[in-house]
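Mods, move this if it's the wrong board.
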Amino acid sequence: MDKFGGMKKIYVSNEARKIFIKLCDKEGFFPQYVDLFHFAAALGLKLNKRKSVKNKQEFTNIYSIDTDGVFETILEQIHPDTDGKERLKLLQEYAEAGIQILKDRYDNEKRIDLEEIIEEMQTR
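Not the wrong board. Structure tokens:
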């Protein structure tokens, strides 16, 4: 079975792409873009927050993001009535929301404490 119904690419918004550059390349909070995507998607999923991906651009292929099928399995469980294409759209929306949350936090505090965010996520 193909991942996410055979869909191949992950997309992010132009705004999210700028956040990737800032948080990874300039500030070094995440070593790679894929790490930021993983964290942001997990954050969005945990908080049940989604944001539409507007002005999207290609980010990477799905196999770079979900090599072990973890996100696909989680999304199948929480959205059982969706097909692969819709689950991929949902994953992108959860990640987009998570990226926005991280950006807002950085803008407000001028830092991102990942351990603090994880602790907060565990108490929700």
